[in-house]
Design goal:
With 349 residues, the protein is an alpha/beta fold. The protein has ten helices and 15 strands. Bound molecules: nicotinamide-adenine-dinucleotide. One of its GO terms (molecular function) is nucleotide binding.
Amino acid sequence: MTSPLRIALIGAGVMGQQHQQHMQSLAEAELCAVADPGPQAAAFATACGVPYFADHRQMLAEMRPEAAIVANPNALHVATALDCLAADVPVLLEKPVGVRLDEVRGLVACSQASGVPVLVGHHRRHNPLIARARELIEQGALGRLTTVTALWQLQKPDSYFDIPWRRKAGAGMLLTNLIHDLDLLRHLCGEVRQVQAITHNGVRGFANEDSAAILLQFEGGALGSLTGSDAVAAPWSWELDSGENPVYPLQADQPCYLLAGTRGALSLPQLKRWHYAEDGAGWHQPLQQVQETVDGEAALRRQLRHFVQVARGRAQPLVSARDAGRTLALVEAIRQAAETGRACAPQII
Ligand SMILES: NC(=O)c1ccc[n+]([C@@H]2O[C@H](COP(=O)([O-])OP(=O)(O)OC[C@H]3O[C@@H](n4cnc5c(N)ncnc54)[C@H](O)[C@@H]3O)[C@@H](O)[C@H]2O)c1
């Protein structure tokens, strides 16, 4: 039997600790070191029973891990991932892949040239219900996808912003949160041709936006909207509606994505599908409702199992640096559209 993959954790904050918990429960993976200059990280490494390093470069040189999970602040992602690639260490890099498209281009080139893979942590794509939704769309269950409505509306507690990097450029709702929704919309509905957007920071008054209204035109012809705010007492978001992470009390009956096509419609994360008994029926006929079902292994755990396969060279990353770069390009197009008031197309990466 193959021994567990020795994985180092770089950045042991909220997200890093979630990865560590999944490593603990997965036979194919084991934590071998923690690198994080923060004040609580040494104690965390001790509690996990692994060596601690303040500096990840020293950790890479001394521990020679077989793979690394990078969950440090966004602005450090590309530089840290490049250090891992230089040490021949495959990376599971938390989203966003980077904070600027030009730096991500460098990472894509380095991963390609070195042959060392990067998997980006858009973990929701690993959720079985997203896999089923994509399958339904690809099989034509919705007909021609025509309109897409996405909601990310919840309230972060004020204490969330006590951590300084979360208030500064390089963080923000678009880059930290809506990037997940945008990534899923690309995954489900295809590439985006152009966007229009209005953003606002009127509730919190920080440098970053706390609200956004975004219009999307997909290359396949569908039109979409995504409205987001992290400052509203509302139940419509993947976090609250999907049950993916138990720290968010579940709003099981509330949808956050509504996909409608010429032959049917789908609400997510409930995976409820609607269609008419016969094509060509219309609003005077009853809509039939179908409850689709899937098995429910946690998306982060599935992502970790996939990462082990990627690091061992047995699978291609489900979300490569280039793919995640296209989601970042979409965020940049939204920012540009909000700044200029014009429709903007995402850059190709
Ligand atoms: N996939 C998801 O759903 C999800 C959810 C939350 C956060 N994230 C991502 O995870 C990353 C971390 O977010 P978080 O909420 O855990 O933040 P956090 O502030 O809780 O943790 C960040 C950690 O990185 C450490 N750090 C700072 N500089 C470092 C360096 N040079 N080297 C190594 N570690 C360093 C900090 O000390 C801290 O422990 C972010 O990129 C965020 O976007 C992803």
